[in-house]
Task: structure prediction
Amino acid sequence: MGVSQAELEMDGLIAHPDIMSENEKGEENERLIEAGVKAIGQSVIVELKDTVNGRSLDITDQKFRSYLRQLLYYLVMTNIEKGIISIRYNSRELRWIKSSTEGDYFFRPYNGRDVGIESWQVFLPKEDIAREILKNEMVRRKSLFLRALQENNVSILPRLAETIRNTRCPYCKFYQKCMNEDNETEDAREMAKERDLLDISGVVDFKPFSPHDEFTEDKI
Result:
Protein backbone atom coordinates (compact mmCIF):
# COMPACT_ATOMS: atom_id res chain seq x y z
CA MET A 1 0.00 0.00 0.00
CA GLY A 2 1.34 3.41 -0.96
CA VAL A 3 0.36 6.77 0.49
CA SER A 4 1.34 10.07 -1.12
CA GLN A 5 0.15 13.59 -1.85
CA ALA A 6 -1.44 14.42 -5.18
CA GLU A 7 1.17 15.30 -7.80
CA LEU A 8 0.65 18.15 -10.25
CA GLU A 9 2.72 18.75 -13.40
CA MET A 10 2.85 21.72 -15.76
CA ASP A 11 5.62 22.60 -18.21
CA GLY A 12 8.16 20.55 -16.26
CA LEU A 13 7.04 21.95 -12.89
CA ILE A 14 6.03 19.44 -10.19
CA ALA A 15 3.88 20.35 -7.17
CA HIS A 16 2.26 18.49 -4.26
CA PRO A 17 -0.71 20.30 -2.67
CA ASP A 18 -1.70 19.20 0.83
CA ILE A 19 -5.36 18.52 -0.02
CA MET A 20 -7.01 18.58 -3.44
CA SER A 21 -10.66 17.69 -3.90
CA GLU A 22 -12.17 17.56 -7.38
CA ASN A 23 -15.69 17.51 -5.98
CA GLU A 24 -17.94 17.49 -9.03
CA LYS A 25 -20.86 15.52 -7.53
CA GLY A 26 -21.59 17.76 -4.59
CA GLU A 27 -20.47 15.22 -2.01
CA GLU A 28 -18.97 16.27 1.30
CA ASN A 29 -15.29 15.41 1.48
CA GLU A 30 -14.35 13.94 4.86
CA ARG A 31 -10.76 15.23 4.74
CA LEU A 32 -11.96 18.79 4.09
CA ILE A 33 -14.49 18.65 6.90
CA GLU A 34 -11.76 17.52 9.28
CA ALA A 35 -9.71 20.53 8.18
CA GLY A 36 -12.63 22.81 9.01
CA VAL A 37 -13.62 23.30 5.37
CA LYS A 38 -17.05 22.41 4.00
CA ALA A 39 -16.97 22.37 0.20
CA ILE A 40 -20.03 21.05 -1.58
CA GLY A 41 -20.27 20.99 -5.36
CA GLN A 42 -16.87 22.64 -5.82
CA SER A 43 -13.31 21.66 -6.55
CA VAL A 44 -10.94 23.07 -3.95
CA ILE A 45 -7.27 23.01 -2.95
CA VAL A 46 -6.33 23.37 0.72
CA GLU A 47 -2.85 24.39 1.81
CA LEU A 48 -2.08 23.59 5.46
CA LYS A 49 0.46 25.72 7.33
CA ASP A 50 1.87 25.72 10.87
CA THR A 51 3.51 28.72 12.50
CA VAL A 52 4.80 29.87 15.87
CA ASN A 53 4.36 33.49 14.77
CA GLY A 54 3.02 35.52 17.68
CA ARG A 55 0.66 37.61 15.58
CA SER A 56 -2.03 36.89 13.02
CA LEU A 57 -0.70 36.88 9.47
CA ASP A 58 -2.39 38.75 6.63
CA ILE A 59 -1.70 40.13 3.16
CA THR A 60 0.75 42.71 4.54
CA ASP A 61 3.06 39.96 5.86
CA GLN A 62 5.71 38.39 3.62
CA LYS A 63 5.16 34.94 5.13
CA PHE A 64 1.43 35.08 4.36
CA ARG A 65 2.16 36.30 0.84
CA SER A 66 4.43 33.30 0.28
CA TYR A 67 1.56 31.03 1.39
CA LEU A 68 -0.81 32.85 -0.96
CA ARG A 69 1.55 32.66 -3.93
CA GLN A 70 2.07 28.92 -3.41
CA LEU A 71 -1.70 28.33 -3.39
CA LEU A 72 -2.20 30.56 -6.45
CA TYR A 73 0.39 28.49 -8.33
CA TYR A 74 -1.59 25.33 -7.49
CA LEU A 75 -4.83 26.95 -8.71
CA VAL A 76 -3.14 27.90 -11.98
CA MET A 77 -1.72 24.39 -12.49
CA THR A 78 -5.10 22.69 -11.89
CA ASN A 79 -7.45 25.33 -13.37
CA ILE A 80 -9.34 25.21 -10.08
CA GLU A 81 -10.88 28.48 -8.89
CA LYS A 82 -11.20 28.03 -5.13
CA GLY A 83 -8.50 27.47 -2.52
CA ILE A 84 -8.11 27.61 1.25
CA ILE A 85 -5.07 28.67 3.29
CA SER A 86 -5.47 27.10 6.72
CA ILE A 87 -2.92 28.39 9.26
CA ARG A 88 -2.47 26.75 12.64
CA TYR A 89 -0.99 29.09 15.26
CA ASN A 90 0.99 27.10 17.82
CA SER A 91 1.59 29.96 20.25
CA ARG A 92 -0.58 32.67 21.77
CA GLU A 93 -0.58 36.14 20.28
CA LEU A 94 2.38 38.46 20.88
CA ARG A 95 2.39 42.16 20.03
CA TRP A 96 5.52 44.07 19.08
CA ILE A 97 6.57 46.98 21.30
CA LYS A 98 9.97 48.14 20.05
CA SER A 99 13.36 47.10 18.72
CA SER A 100 16.81 47.75 20.14
CA THR A 101 20.37 46.63 19.46
CA GLU A 102 19.64 43.62 21.68
CA GLY A 103 16.53 42.50 19.81
CA ASP A 104 12.76 42.95 19.56
CA TYR A 105 10.44 43.45 22.54
CA PHE A 106 6.92 41.94 22.66
CA PHE A 107 4.10 41.54 25.16
CA ARG A 108 1.29 38.95 25.38
CA PRO A 109 -2.13 40.65 25.77
CA TYR A 110 -4.71 38.98 28.04
CA ASN A 111 -7.33 39.24 25.30
CA GLY A 112 -4.97 38.20 22.48
CA ARG A 113 -5.52 35.44 19.98
CA ASP A 114 -5.22 31.96 21.47
CA VAL A 115 -3.63 28.88 19.91
CA GLY A 116 -5.86 27.76 17.06
CA ILE A 117 -6.56 27.67 13.32
CA GLU A 118 -7.34 30.60 11.03
CA SER A 119 -8.50 29.94 7.46
CA TRP A 120 -8.51 32.20 4.42
CA GLN A 121 -10.59 31.61 1.31
CA VAL A 122 -8.92 32.41 -2.02
CA PHE A 123 -10.81 32.72 -5.30
CA LEU A 124 -9.05 32.96 -8.67
CA PRO A 125 -11.55 33.09 -11.58
CA LYS A 126 -10.70 30.94 -14.59
CA GLU A 127 -10.87 33.95 -16.93
CA ASP A 128 -8.65 36.17 -14.76
CA ILE A 129 -5.59 37.53 -16.62
CA ALA A 130 -3.59 36.96 -13.43
CA ARG A 131 -3.55 33.24 -14.27
CA GLU A 132 -1.42 33.82 -17.36
CA ILE A 133 0.85 36.24 -15.48
CA LEU A 134 1.37 33.70 -12.67
CA LYS A 135 2.01 30.90 -15.16
CA ASN A 136 4.67 32.95 -16.97
CA GLU A 137 6.22 33.81 -13.60
CA MET A 138 6.44 30.13 -12.63
CA VAL A 139 7.99 29.05 -15.93
CA ARG A 140 10.43 31.97 -15.90
CA ARG A 141 11.63 31.14 -12.37
CA LYS A 142 12.01 27.46 -13.22
CA SER A 143 14.00 28.17 -16.39
CA LEU A 144 16.29 30.64 -14.62
CA PHE A 145 16.93 28.25 -11.73
CA LEU A 146 17.73 25.35 -14.09
CA ARG A 147 20.11 27.57 -16.06
CA ALA A 148 21.89 28.59 -12.83
CA LEU A 149 22.34 24.90 -11.93
CA GLN A 150 23.53 23.91 -15.40
CA GLU A 151 26.02 26.78 -15.59
CA ASN A 152 26.95 26.63 -11.89
CA ASN A 153 26.32 30.36 -11.82
CA VAL A 154 24.23 31.89 -9.04
CA SER A 155 24.92 35.44 -10.20
CA ILE A 156 21.99 35.24 -12.66
CA LEU A 157 19.51 34.62 -9.80
CA PRO A 158 17.87 37.74 -8.33
CA ARG A 159 18.30 38.36 -4.61
CA LEU A 160 15.40 39.45 -2.44
CA ALA A 161 13.93 42.85 -3.24
CA GLU A 162 15.87 45.64 -1.55
CA THR A 163 12.80 46.63 0.50
CA ILE A 164 12.93 43.21 2.21
CA ARG A 165 16.68 42.71 2.49
CA ASN A 166 17.21 45.01 5.46
CA THR A 167 14.80 43.07 7.67
CA ARG A 168 15.38 39.49 6.54
CA CYS A 169 18.84 39.06 5.05
CA PRO A 170 21.12 40.21 7.93
CA TYR A 171 20.02 37.22 10.03
CA CYS A 172 20.80 34.67 7.30
CA LYS A 173 23.97 32.60 7.77
CA PHE A 174 24.69 32.97 4.03
CA TYR A 175 24.46 36.77 4.09
CA GLN A 176 28.19 37.39 3.66
CA LYS A 177 28.53 34.98 0.74
CA CYS A 178 25.29 36.02 -0.96
CA MET A 179 25.71 39.78 -0.68
CA ASN A 180 29.46 40.30 -0.64
CA GLU A 181 31.10 37.33 -2.37
CA ASP A 182 28.78 36.08 -5.11
CA ASN A 183 28.28 38.49 -7.97
CA GLU A 184 24.87 39.58 -9.24
CA THR A 185 24.26 40.33 -12.90
CA GLU A 186 22.53 43.50 -14.00
CA ASP A 187 19.59 41.43 -15.31
CA ALA A 188 19.23 39.82 -11.89
CA ARG A 189 19.25 43.22 -10.19
CA GLU A 190 16.56 44.50 -12.56
CA MET A 191 14.45 41.39 -12.01
CA ALA A 192 14.60 41.90 -8.24
CA LYS A 193 13.23 45.43 -8.75
CA GLU A 194 10.20 44.26 -10.75
CA ARG A 195 6.86 45.02 -9.16
CA ASP A 196 5.20 42.04 -7.51
CA LEU A 197 1.80 41.12 -8.95
CA LEU A 198 0.38 41.13 -5.40
CA ASP A 199 1.52 44.75 -4.95
CA ILE A 200 -0.50 46.08 -7.89
CA SER A 201 -3.55 48.02 -6.75
CA GLY A 202 -6.82 46.23 -7.49
CA VAL A 203 -5.31 42.80 -8.11
CA VAL A 204 -6.11 41.45 -4.65
CA ASP A 205 -9.51 42.14 -3.09
CA PHE A 206 -8.57 41.61 0.55
CA LYS A 207 -11.42 41.24 3.05
CA PRO A 208 -10.35 40.91 6.69
CA PHE A 209 -12.24 38.66 9.06
CA SER A 210 -15.64 39.64 10.42
CA PRO A 211 -17.59 37.70 13.07
CA HIS A 212 -20.30 36.83 10.54
CA ASP A 213 -17.98 35.25 7.97
CA GLU A 214 -17.19 31.54 7.85
CA PHE A 215 -13.77 32.37 6.42
CA THR A 216 -11.72 35.42 5.81
CA GLU A 217 -11.54 35.99 2.08
CA ASP A 218 -8.85 36.92 -0.39
CA LYS A 219 -9.88 37.29 -4.04
CA ILE A 220 -7.46 37.90 -6.87
